[in-house]
Structures
1.
Amino acid sequence: MRGFRSGFRLQLSFFRNYPDSLIPLLTAPLFTVVFTMVLRHGGRGDLSGYAMIAPFYMSLWWFAIFNGGWVIQTERWEGTIEYLVAAPVGFVSVIVGRISTMLLAGAVAFGEVWVFGRYVLRTNVTIHHPYVFTASLVLTLIAMTTTSLFMANLFVLSRTAVTFSNSASYPVYLLGGILVPIALLPGWLQPATNIVFLSWSSKLLRGSLSAGPIQGAAFDLSMIALLAVVALGLATAFMSRILRHARSSGELALR
Amino acid sequence: MSPRPQAVTVIDLVRTFQPRKQPAVQALDGVRLDVDEGEVHGLLGPNGAGKTTLVKILTTVLLPTSGRAEILGHDVVHDAKAVRPLIGIVFGGERGLYTRLTARQNLEYWASLYRLPGAQIKARAAALLERVGLAEKADVKVETFSRGMKQRLHLARGLVAGAKVLFLDEPTTGMDPIASREFRTLISEIRAEGATILLATHDMVEAEVLCDRVTLIDHGRILATESPRSLGRLVSRFQRVDVEGADRELLDRVAALPGVESIVESDDGHRINVDGDEHVPVVLKVIVEAGVVDVRTSRPSLEEVYVGLIGDRGLEV
C-alpha cells in the first residue's frame, strides 16, 4: 500500500509539474463544442448527450496512453527504474499507484465536459438511469486504468510503441463506439468490438441517457468488469516476467 | 579475537551478458570479495572492468549468472526483499532523478519508497539537503542543476533511509575539486556513523584517501585486495628515498650502503630503492650529513600500483 500511495502522489506531482500532461482537459471542451454544433446543425439536439460522452472517452484514452502507458518506459528513460527496482516497496505497487491517477484524471475530465456542456453550451441532458450511469462510469475508469497498466507493459516490450501510441487512438475510438455507435459499423467489424471494454461502456452510458429501458445492463457491466480483470491479470503477469527478464538480461535501464 | 562480521560477501560470482547477435561478454569471472562491517572498501578498475556490474548485482538490480552474494547475511537473489531496506545506492551520472521535480520532491518521494514514517520524511529530506549543501536549492527543479549538484542529490538519496551498506558507483563524476573534497569529508562522516561503504571508482586520490582496503578489478577478475598502502608492495618491494641535489660522489657512497638495490634518475633528482625498512635510516643519515636537505621517503602511490597491475591501456576499455 505504501508503494501505491507513493506512486499516486508522484504522478500527481507530475501533473503539477508537467502541465502538458493535462492537455486533454484543454481539448475536451473544444471537442464538445465541435460535436455539439454538428448535432445541432443536423437537427439532432436530442443526441447532445453523446457529444459530451465522446470527448470524455477521448480524454480518458489520451490519459491512458500518454500518462499511464508510458509510465514504465519513462522510468527507463529517466534512469530511475534501477533505483525503483532496488527500493524496498514493490515495483508493481508503485507503477499501479502512478497509473491509478487515471481514475482521478478521468473523473475530472468527465466533470469538466459535463459542466462545460451544461452551463456553457446550454445542453439539456437528463440521466434517466442514474445507477447504471454511475456504475458504468466507475467501472469504465477502473477498466481504463487496468488497460493502461497492460499497455505500459506492452510499450516496454514493443519496439514500435511510439507508433502504436500515436496511431492506435482512432481504431480504438471506432471499435469502442466512441464516435459512432457500434450498431452503425459494418457487420464484419462488429464482433471485434466485443473485446474492447469501451464498446460495452459507451453503449451503457448512452443508454442511461435515453428514456427507454436498458436491455442487458447487468451483462454489459459484467463485461466491462471482466475485461478490466483480464487486463489487470495480463498486466501483472507481464510485469513480473518483464522485470525478471530485464534483471536477468541486464536491459533494465536500457533506453 | 572473533573475526569482524561481514557486510558484503561475494563468492565465485559470474555474470555473462549475451548481446543480440554478438559474442557473449564475461563481465564478472569468479569474483570473491569480503567487506567488513564499518569498512570503506574501494573497487578500483578501468572502464569495463566489472565494477558497475558487481555493484548492480549487490544492489539486487541485476541477477548473477552463477555464484552467490550476500549483504549482511541476506542473499541478494533469493532474499532480495530483506536486502533492499539495508542498502543505499548512488549510481554515477546525471540520470536517475526526476528532472522536472524539485530536489525536495525527489528526495521525499524516494524516502517514501523506503517506508519512512510520513512525519519523518520531510524532516529527513530537509536535513539531507542541508547536509549535501542543497538547502537553498531544495525547491528548485532538478533540470536546472549542474552535474555536481545532481551528484550531491544522488548522494542524499542514497542516505535517505539510513542505509547500513552504502554503494557508491563513481559518485564524484562531474564534481569540481572543492565539491569532491567536501564529498570525501561527508563520506568520512557517514563512515564514522557506522555505515559500510563500497566505493566503485577510478579516482586514485579518492580511493587512497577514503578506503580502508582497495580491490583492484580488471576484466571481471579480482587482481588484489589490500589496504592502499600495502598495495604498493605488489609493484615494488622497495622503500624509496627521493633526493634532489645529490652529487655523483654522494650517490656512489649511498650505492655502496647495505640494502641499497639501485639508484635511478627521476624527474626531480634521483630515486634510491632500498630493500628493507631497517636500512632506510642509514641511507637518510648519510644523505643529510652530506648537506642535502631535499629528501623524502615514499611508497608507490595507488596510481602507480594501478598502472603497474592493470597496465597503461590508453583509451582502450
2.
Amino acid sequence: MVDNNGYFLNQFEDCKRLPTIFTTNGRCKNNRILNPKSTTNLETLSTDFLINYSPTAVAILDTDMCFTGHSQIWLKEFGITNESIIGKSYYEVIPDTPDALKKIHTDCLKGTFNESAGKKFMHANGTVQWLKWKINAWKDDEGTVGGLIIDMEDITKTKRREELLLMAESVARIGGWEVDMATSKVLWTKVTSEIHEVAEGYVPNLEEGINFYKAGEHRDRITNLVSEAIQSGATWDTELIIVTAKDNEVWVRSKGEVEIIDGKCVRIFGTFQDINEKKKYELALNKVTERLSVATKKAGVGIWDFDILKNELVWDANMYSLYGVKKSDFIGEYEAWQAGLHEEDKLRGDKEIQMAISGEKEFDTEFRIVWPNGEIRHIRAIAVTQRNADGKATKITGTNWDITELKTTQLKLLRSRESFKETFTNSVIGLAMVALDGTFKEVNASLCKSLGYSESELCQFTFAEITHPDDLEMDLAQLQKIIDRKQDSYQTEKRYIHKNGKVVHAILTVTAGKDIHGELSYYIGQIIDISDRIASEKELNQYVDITREQNESLLNFAHIVSHNLRSHSTNLTMLSGFLNKEEDEKERKNLLGMLGNASESLIETVLHLNEVVQVKVGATDMMKSVNLYKTIKNVEKNLSLLLQEKKAVCQIDVAKDISLMAVPAYLDSILLNLVTNSIKYSSPDRSPIIKISATMVKKKLVLAVSDNGLGINLERHGKKLFGMYKTFHRNKDAKGIGLFITKNQIEAMNGKIEVESEVGVGTTFKLYF
Amino acid sequence: MSKVKNTCIIDDDPIFVYGTMRLMKEVDFSENILVYENGQDAIDGLNQMTTEGKDLPSVIFLDLNMPIMNGWEFLEDFVKIPNNNREKVTIYIISSSVDPKDLERVKNYNVVNNYILKPISPEDLKSILHEAK
C-alpha cells in the first residue's frame, strides 16, 4: 500500500514476497505487506526488484537454503523450468548440487564470503560442470545471518572451450606471449614456458626473452623484427632457433602483432610454436630432395606423376629440359607431353598408358619425342601404377630419361654390322669367322669356292681338319700366341686340303675377335687363295731350273772344251818345243808322230764342239714326222757289219705304224749311238742281244734300247754318265762324248733320256718323246 | 839338289806323260818314275806296293780328268791306303782346267800340296825339288 506521497504503507506483516509492480511514474501499483518492523522495507522492495531483473543469475536464500528471491536469469542459467521456486529448497530445485558446494553454502551461512573464479565439478552421472560464484551471507538489522545471496554462473561451456584451447595449445606446442610496453612485463603461457624449458612461474622481461634466441643470425633477426614492429606496427611470422634454459637448440615459429593506440605501441603479443620436429624433418627432407634433385638433374632423369582420377599430369623441372620446352610454354603438362611425342608413337604411348591403368602391363617402354627445333630424341620411360584398396588405379608415377645417345650408338653398331656382313659375304678374298674351338661359324662364298665345300659342309669342320698336316703344327703355334695374348693377329702361308683332295695354297691372316669385355671370343680368318700363284711359281721355277741347268751345262761345256783345247794345244807347244831341240832322228820321228796325234785330237775336239753346238741350236725347226720302225731298221742296216762281227742280235719290238715328231738326223744319231754302245760294251761271257721296244706310257712314246752287256755302275758313275768326255770302261774307242750328244739331241726334241743298269747283267736306255 | 827317289805320274794323255818324263830327265828329277793312265790303275798299283811293303813314291803328279777314275776319286781313295809313309807323299795336281771350281776344290784336300797348270815347265820341277828338301 502506498500513501499519496508514494510511501509504502506497512499494511502487511510477514509478507515476504509479493510481486511488486512499479507504476510508470515510479510508484508501486500494488500493495505489498511487509514486515512493519523492518526498516529495510524500502531496501527489501528494491532488492526484490533488482534481483528479479538482475542481469546475472542471482538467488537469495534463507538459512534453510530455501529460495526467497531469484533473478529470471537464474532460472535460465540452471535450466529450471518450474517458474515458482520461491520457498523451495535449493537442493530440491537443483538436485545435482555437488557436495563440495553444499559445504561451501554451509560455511557461508556462518557469515563468510566465498567466491570462485571457476571450479570444476564432476557429477555422479559423469558430466562435468564448471561453476563460478560469489556467495555472501545476508544479515538482518540485528546482524543475524538471514540467509545467502548467491551469484553463480555456469561457465562450463566457456571453461570447456578454454580447456580445449589449452589442450590444443599444448598438443600443438603453441604458447602465447605478451609484452605490456608500459610495464615491460612479459606474459608467457604454460606452453611457452615449456618450450623455453623454464619453470612455469618464470617471467622474463623483453630483453631476456630475446636473449633466448640463438646468438648471431637468429637473435639479430628477432631483434630487428621486434623493433620494426614497435616502430611501424609490422607483424612478423618467422622461424628461428632458440636455446632453451637447458641449453637445447629448438626451432620455433614466432608470430608477433602489436597493438598501437594513438600511434604508440602499447602491447606486443603473439604465439610461440615449437616446430623443432617439423623443422628437423623439413631440413632433412630438403637435403634429401636436394640430393635427389642434383642426382636426377645430373643424370637427366625426369620424374612425372599422373593422377588418373583427376586426370592431371605433373612434371618436375628435369622433365621440361628433357622435352626441350619451358614450363611457361604450356598450360598443363599433359599437353606438353602430347605435343612432344613423335607422331608415330602417340597412339602407342596412349595405349600403353591405358594398359598400365588396366593392369595389363606396367608402363615400361621407349618412344620418340620431337623437340621444338625439330630434333628427335629417344626417351625411355618406366612407371609404377598405384592402386587403391579396390585395386583401381589411382596414380602413375614414372621416370623419363634420354637414351638418344644409346640409340644412336645402337643404330651405328647395327649399320656397321650390316656393312661388315656385306663385305664379308661379297669379298673376293675368302673370309671366315671361327669359333674358339676351331669350328667354322661363318664362311663366305669365296672361301667355299677355294676349298670346294658348300657353306653348310664347311661349317661342320674345324680349320685343323682341312689344314695340310705338315702345316698344322706351325699354324697352331701361331694361334697359341693369340690365345696367350702375346699378339692380336698373325699371318702365315699354309696349305688347305680341297674337298677333292688337292692341295690349296693360301696366305692366312688371323685376327682375334673380342667380346665386350675385351676377352677373346672368336677368330676372323682371311684366306687368300694363292694356288694359281703357286702354280705359276712352280712353272716359273721349272723354267728357272731348266735355264740354270742349261747355263750350268753351258758353263760345264765351256770348261770342258777349254780344258780339252788347252790340253791339246799345250801338247802341241810342248812337242814343237822338244822337236826344236831334238837332234836324234829316231826321237824326232817319234815326236813328229806324237805331234800328228795331238793335232788330230785338237781337230776332233773342235768337231765335237761343233756337233754339240749344233744340237743346242734350232732343233725344233727341223722336226718332222718319221716312222719309227723304218728308222730303226735303217740303223740296223748301217750297223750290220759291226753286228755281224760281234755276233750281236737285234730284237725289234716296235709297231710298224708308229710315227713321231722328231729331227730325223738326231733320231738316227741317237739310235746309232745307243746300239753302237750296246755292241761296244757287250759282255764277253755272252752273245750280245739288243732289244728295241716301243710303248705308250701316259700318252708319251717310250723307246727302250736294252742290252745284256757289261752294265754300268750307276751308283758310281750315274751322275757323270751323260757328261762330256766321261768314260767308264777301258774301251779304246770310248771318247766319252757319245751319250753327251745323245742326251742333248733328245732334249733338243723336248724329250728325255733315262738309264737303268746292273753291272754284269746289262743296260737299258729309255727315250721319252 | 838331290833327286827324288820315286815319282808317280797319273795321267791319261800319253803326249803329256812323254813330255813330262822328258823334262824330268833333263832336270834329273827322279830316280824312278811310275806312270798310271787313270786313277783306278794308280790305286791298284799303290795298294800293290803297300802289300809288298814298298815305300810309296814321294811325289805324285795327278791329272784331274781321266777315264774310269778321275783325279778327285783317286784322292778320295788314296787317303784310305794303309801305308805309314803316306804322309810323306806330296801330291801335285796338274791340269789344263782353269775352272775356278776345281781350284777351289783342291783346297779341300789336305793331302794336295799344290796345283800346277799344264804345261809343266822345268822351273816347276826345280822348285818342287827345292820344296822336297
